Amino acid sequence: MFCHGTVCHIQFPLSVLRHLTTKMLQTVIVVALTILACASSTSNHSYDFIGKFALVTGGNRGIGLGITSALLENGVKGVTMVHINPTRSKEAVDSLGAQFGQGRVIVLIADVSDEKQLEEAFKKSIAHWGGLDIVINNAGVVNENNPVRLTNINAIGVMHGTLLGMRHMSVAKGGRGGVVINISSIYGIDHLFASPVYSATKAYVLGLGRAFGHESYYDQTKVRVLTLCPGLTDTELLSKVPFKMGISNEFIPDLIEIAYALVDSSYLQSPHNLGRAVTVMLQCGASGSVWVAEDEQLPYEIDIPVRTAMKKQ
User: Fold this and answer.
1) What is the pLDDT of residue 182?
2) Is the backbone of residue 106 left (phi > 0), alpha (psi -120 to 50) or beta?
3) pLDDT for the residue 7
4) CA–CA separation, 55 vs 214, rounded Å?
5) Would you call 217 a catalytic residue per the annotation?
6) How far apart are CA 38 and CA 267, in angstroms?
7) Which of the following is catalytic: 198, 204, 217, 218?
8) Tens digit of each residue's pLDDT (9 = 90 or more) over 9-50
9) Residue 39 or 242, more confident
10) Percentage above 70 pLDDT, the chain
11) 255 burial via Cβ count (<10 Å: 0-12, 13-18, 19+)
């Protein structure tokens, strides 16, 4: 690889490329893309996936399933998926087992908004695998018609998962360090008027990760806390019926149709791209950093300006 400023190029000899199998070529491409994505990061972290154990909330579909698949593909030894739907979870385990090998994924049923249920899931996961190295707080909903439930899952659930992850992985509490990645949204950065409570919960997740990502916490715990803000993604939440059920016309007539028209005309990235984003963040994301993944492109780190820089002129 050679770079000019912030632009990097990767070259492979033709003699090498001729002998690569499809799987090997895919691996080479992933490594090359990760190098490119990390080139602009100021972090000096490196990461070895081999032998690690992860816990992913909402891991049996959509973004969570894409992240779980990426972790397994990169060598994570075992993943616990925490979800409230046992039927879908079993289907996901069977599918992942066929693809990556049996016994590498387990499911624990818990409501992330219930601290005791989630804490029990953490304890069972650690007892099963013998450790915990990665926590992905991904579970989330879109339901402006039930704002309390939405807030309890999207915000309080992520808070529970962050605190539990830090408690169980902190070297100061007998853990071996680790990484917490919280899933926010681009609408935690740029508000979405059609879904104000959802936007507020994602802004909360953003602030939580930036605060717990401060170096003072990392110095004591050796746990990095990072935030990923996905753009619009092709998941069930954005399919027509669930999306429309999650928007409210209470204050703006026809808001449901207006909002769906905006989504329907937008490009939706694949959940696979979010899995790729997480692998990049694990390898080169500094604690407290915020990343965006959208439009099927490599993730990029963003800087949140200090408030004085945002003063209106």
Assistant:
1) 98
2) beta
3) 45
4) 22
5) no
6) 25
7) 198
8) 455 566 655 666 654 555 455 555 555 667 655 565 679 999
9) 242
10) 86
11) middle
Q: How many CA atoms lie within 13 A of 212 on its CB side?
A: 28
Q: Is the dihedral of CA 204, 209, 212, 214 positive or negative?
A: negative
Name the token pair of 143: 């339901």
3-state secondary structure of 76: coil
CB 180 within 8 A of CB 154: no
DSSP assignments along 183-199, one per residue: E--GGGTS--TT-HHHH
d(CA 81, CA 156): 18
Measure the CA–CA gap between 91 and 93, rounded to whole angstroms.
6
What b/e readout covers 181-218, taking b as 16+ CB neighbours within 10 angstroms? bbbbbbbbbeebebbebbbbbbbbbbebbbebbeeebb
pLDDT at residue 160 is higher than 60: yes
Residues facing 135 on adjacent strands: 55, 180
CA distance from start to end of the chain: 43
Tokens of 254: 């026809």
Q: In the numeric block, which tokens belong to residue 107?
A: 């499911």
Q: What is the largest CA-CA distance in the chain?
A: 64
What's the distance, CA 1 to chain centroid? 28
Which pLDDT score, from 0 to 100, does residue 10 have? 53
Q: Are strands 290-293 and 300-302 parallel, antiparallel or unpaired?
A: antiparallel
DSSP 136: E
- Radius of gyration, CA atoms only, the chain: 20
C-alpha to C-alpha distance for 55 and 76, rounded to whole angstroms? 11
**Within 10 A of 173 (CB to CB), how many other CB atoms are there?**
12
